[in-house]
């Protein structure tokens, strides 16, 4: 894929600190690879702890002015930023496809999805209501008001390089916080372009800062924010292991935390389900972004009575998926992000075969004249999955759908909940009584009922158990960036 943008100036490779684009303090850079080919195509700033501290200083000094702006001013900025994202959607999508590998159609969808959070929180900025506590003691007036937390450090993953950072920055700015951000080392360019558009929208210097770093420097950059008492909140999307580390380290200064961590989503098809709808729902939820999402079904439980019919229909759909580079309009599955990702998929599939699984379709790397790069893996359906397999306990993060058999409702709910994770879960049933029973018993923060597309800027996104805490999106998402302050005025009588 040759990167041609209407606005080449959106390709930024330096840090953005205090309203200025600048190299890292050591003037070092690291390469960004195209996952479709494995080749380097850009060099971005390789930051250090000093760069991170400089960004914190800028955000801290800008905080008082920004928090004291009216909600109308902050809302109007977000609306201008939203419009610039839409105006440059195609360039953002092409840049995202090149560095992340997802097909252009999906990249365009992600731009629209990420922009929806900016638009949503532009409106929510105007609705940061407090409360008046009813009078119980004569002569006292008691109020609850909400105030910005302070400087927020946003750390985002590679699988949704625009939507995830927009989902964190937009509510932070709406609440009156200032931001220091670090995008994933694999996909920094989309985030840098997004910040360039925020600058173009007129954001004051220091309110939004972003630094990039290689994998070897991540701990230095994030460590500087964890140690700095001026950073009052960490918002992170990524692995549970890293989330636990952040929680431990953030305790030293009692920072606020929002952690959207790993998942192990069950997808249950009951015997009374609409099989065609269930297959469609699984296609949407499992194979989006090549299976590289935290809410992808990782365990597909199908009632024994409908197992064969479901498997046949699913295999037909999965085998027909087009695998190829992101710049081909017909591509539905692009490359995996890197070699480590492909190796994990291969390990999970081989382990499943060793424990009795059979391949119904896929199960191999793809290297042909269309998918000619090193990181393509065929969309795969495995039959006869069981809980002795690694894929039953770890996120595969790839286009692999393992099918488990079950016999009754109690059994499958117990299996679905038998995991330390609890981000998303899905089930299909046409029995209204069962719908409420199962929804109430599923130990997840999000439940898809006869639906595979569950995310929306209007709904709270987040998990329970070891999938983290805090919520993003919706009216609840703004609260994660605000403190409650209680005011008590006496001697009024």
UniProtKB/TrEMBL annotation:
Keyword RNA-binding attached: no
The EC number(s) this enzyme carries: 1.2.1.20
Active site per UniProt: 260
InterPro entries to which the protein is assigned, alphabetical: Ald_DH/histidinol_DH, Ald_DH_C, Ald_DH_CS_CYS, Ald_DH_CS_GLU, Ald_DH_N, Aldehyde_DH_dom, Aldehyde_DH_Superfamily, Succ_semiAld_DH
GO molecular function: glutarate-semialdehyde dehydrogenase (NADP+) activity; succinate-semialdehyde dehydrogenase (NAD+) activity
Domain of life (superkingdom): Bacteria
Domain Aldehyde dehydrogenase: 21-486
Entry keyword set: Oxidoreductase
One Pfam family named in its UniProt record: Aldedh
The UniProt record lists the keyword Oxidoreductase: yes
Annotated TM spans: none
Entry's family note: Belongs to the aldehyde dehydrogenase family.
Record-linked NCBIfam families: SSADH (TIGR01780)
Protein name in UniProt: Glutarate-semialdehyde dehydrogenase DavD
Annotated organism of origin: Marinomonas spartinae
Gene: davD
């Amino acid at each position: 894929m040759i990167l041609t943008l209407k606005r080449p100036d959106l390709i930024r490779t330096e840090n953005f600190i205090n309203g200025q684009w600048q190299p890292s303090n050591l003037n070092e850079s690291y390469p960004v690879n195209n996952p479709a080919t494995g080749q380097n195509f850009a060099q971005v700033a390789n930051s250090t702890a000093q760069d991170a501290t400089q960004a914190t200083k800028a955000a801290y000094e800008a905080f008082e002015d920004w928090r004291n702006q009216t909600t109308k001013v902050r809302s109007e900025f977000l609306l201008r930023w939203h419009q610039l994202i839409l105006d440059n959607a195609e360039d953002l999508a092409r840049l995202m496809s090149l560095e992340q590998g997802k097909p252009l159609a999906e990249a365009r969808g992600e731009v629209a999805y990420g922009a929806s959070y900016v638009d949503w929180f532009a409106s929510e900025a105007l609705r940061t209501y407090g409360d008046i506590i009813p009078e119980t003691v004569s002569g006292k007036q008691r109020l609850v008001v909400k105030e910005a937390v302070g400087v927020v450090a946003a750390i985002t993953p590679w699988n949704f390089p625009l939507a995830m950072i927009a989902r964190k920055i937009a509510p932070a700015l709406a609440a009156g916080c200032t931001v220091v951000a670090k995008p994933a080392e694999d996909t920094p360019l989309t985030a840098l372009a997004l910040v360039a558009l925020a600058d173009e929208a007129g954001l004051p210097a220091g309110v939004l800062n972003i630094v990039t770093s290689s994998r070897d420097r991540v701990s230095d950059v994030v460590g500087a924010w964890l140690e700095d008492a001026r950073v009052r909140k960490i918002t992170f999307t990524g692995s549970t292991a890293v989330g636990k580390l952040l929680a431990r380290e953030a305790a030293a200064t009692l920072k606020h935390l929002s952690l959207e961590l790993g998942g192990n989503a069950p997808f249950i098809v009951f015997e009374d389900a609409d099989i065609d709808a269930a297959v469609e729902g699984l296609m949407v939820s499992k194979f989006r972004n090549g299976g590289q999402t935290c809410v992808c079904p990782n365990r597909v439980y199908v009632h024994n009575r409908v197992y064969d019919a479901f498997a046949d229909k699913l295999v037909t759909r999965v085998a027909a998926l087009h695998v190829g580079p992101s710049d081909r309009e017909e591509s539905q599955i692009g490359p995996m992000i890197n070699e480590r990702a492909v190796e994990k998929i291969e390990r999970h599939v081989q382990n499943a075969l060793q424990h009795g699984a059979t391949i119904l379709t896929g199960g191999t790397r793809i290297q042909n004249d269309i998918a000619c790069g090193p990181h393509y893996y065929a969309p795969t359906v495995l039959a006869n999955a069981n809980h002795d397999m690694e894929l039953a306990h770890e996120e595969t993060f790839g286009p692999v759908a393992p099918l488990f058999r079950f016999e009754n409702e109690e059994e499958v709910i117990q299996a679905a909940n038998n995991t330390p994770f609890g981000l998303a879960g899905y089930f299909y049933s046409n029995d209204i009584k069962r719908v409420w029973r199962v929804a109430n018993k599923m130990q997840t923060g999000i439940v898809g009922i006869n639906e595979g597309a569950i995310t929306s800027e209007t709904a709270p996104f987040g998990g329970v158990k070891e999938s983290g805490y805090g919520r993003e999106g919706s009216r609840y998402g703004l609260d994660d960036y605000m403190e409650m302050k209680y005011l008590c005025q006496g001697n009024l009588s």
